[in-house]
From TrEMBL:
It comes from Aromatoleum toluolicum. InterPro entries: N_methyl_site, PilW. This is Type IV pilus assembly protein PilW. It comes from the Bacteria. The chain crosses the membrane at residues 12-32.
Length: 373
């Protein structure tokens, strides 16, 4: 009788072999998963770094563009020519006593933020100036007088107007303009023959000093032929770092970061954590910058010798690391200033060293007649 084959020659997979295969497969899967995770993290780090660099470059480009235009068509016109200096009073004290016009209304105004971010204000819109309000003074008036005889056919003066009184051109003696506020008008200003009386008594205005002879060191004598100019609206556009962003907005407002945030209306670039700026100062009669100073260190008379500003923007990567990936704080301005990032608002358990940073800088020449001979 022939026996059927039992199949003992066929090989199978034992339980041990199967378990070894599963373990090897798991090891390979874990290795692949770890590699993918590492690659993904590196991709996120690279992307976040590139985004930070892009934000910093965009913000810096906007600041540079506006800074180059600051003061354009303002100080090259009648204001700087007729008002090289300014007298201004605001009760209870004198606020400008023969102050150079570029100091009173600088094209670029930097506010020193100390260890935090600085603020940059720029005059970008040429102010509307009414310069052809000829003041016909019928007789020489002392500076303590509180009335001017005016012939102004346009009839544009009104009670409450803030007005600059300028010396008859050409102002070769460099008399300062004096700021007054119109407190009353009697007569017909449009009457070219007789004119009207413009009153600026101190009793009803904080802008008119009790006695101009004692309020200011040098006064405009209000001689015949003097010129009245309605005070220009020197509107400043502000750059500042708030809400972890670089903002650009009217200097008269303060964007909100909480509640219903309004900062989004003026946010230029996200991830910006620091803005620093300095003035470049030249010697008198020169255009060569000899020193750079922060705003709080500017001495009297140095604003008239500012030829440029330099700006640094610091962007923070959006990717936080578990390790301290930044060992030392960023430095700006040729290594002359080390930034203090300890005040940044960060997640619990994290410090500024758990983030990466990108620093971008630029130097912007300021071109206008006040700061550029």
């Amino acid at each position: 009788m022939t026996q059927r084959a039992t199949g003992r020659g066929q090989a199978g997979i034992s339980l041990v072999e199967m378990m070894v295969g599963i373990v090897v497969g798991l090891i390979i899967a874990i290795a692949i998963t770890s590699s993918v995770a590492a690659i993904g993290k590196q991709f996120r780090i690279t992307g976040a770094g590139a985004s930070a660099a892009e934000s910093a470059q965009l913000g810096l480009a906007m600041v540079e563009r506006d800074a180059r235009m600051a003061g354009a068509a303002v100080f090259s016109g009648s204001v700087a020519t007729m008002c090289p200096r300014l007298n201004a009073y605001k009760a209870p004290a004198t606020i400008n006593d023969g102050t150079p016009i570029g100091d009173a209304w600088p094209p670029v105004r930097i506010t020193d933020g100390g260890t935090g971010s600085d603020t940059i204000d720029l005059i970008l819109t040429p102010p509307a100036v009414a310069i052809n309000l000829n003041v016909g003074v019928t007789k020489e008036l002392p500076t303590s007088a509180s009335v001017l005889k005016v012939s102004e056919p346009g009839g544009r003066l009104a009670v409450g107007d803030l007005v600059l009184v300028a010396h008859p051109p050409p102002n070769t003696s460099g008399y300062p303009c004096t700021l007054i506020q119109v407190t009353g008008i009697t007569g017909n200003c449009a009457d070219a023959a007789n004119g009207c009386n413009v009153n600026f008594g101190s009793g009803s205005s904080d802008y008119n000093p009790p006695n101009a002879n004692t309020a200011f060191a040098t006064t405009e004598p209000y001689a015949p032929g003097s010129v009245l100019m309605k005070l220009p609206n020197f509107t400043y556009t502000r750059y500042q770092v708030r809400c972890n962003s670089l903002l650009r907005h009217d200097a008269a407002i303060t964007p909100s970061c909480i509640g219903t945030p309004s900062y989004r209306d003026s946010a230029l670039a996200a991830g910006i954590v620091m803005l620093k700026a300095q003035y470049g100062i030249a010697n008198a009669g020169s255009d060569a910058i000899v020193q750079w100073k922060r705003a709080s260190a500017i001495a009297a008379g140095e604003m008239a010798r500012v030829k440029a500003v330099r700006v640094a923007i610091v962007a923070q990567s959006g990717e936080v690391d578990s390790a301290q990936v930044t060992s030392s704080a960023p430095v700006v301005f040729d290594g002359t200033q080390t930034l203090d990032l300890s005040g940044l608002s960060l997640p619990a358990g994290k410090t500024w060293q758990n983030y990466r940073y990108r620093v971008h800088e630029t130097i912007v020449p300021v071109r206008n007649s006040t700061w550029n001979r």
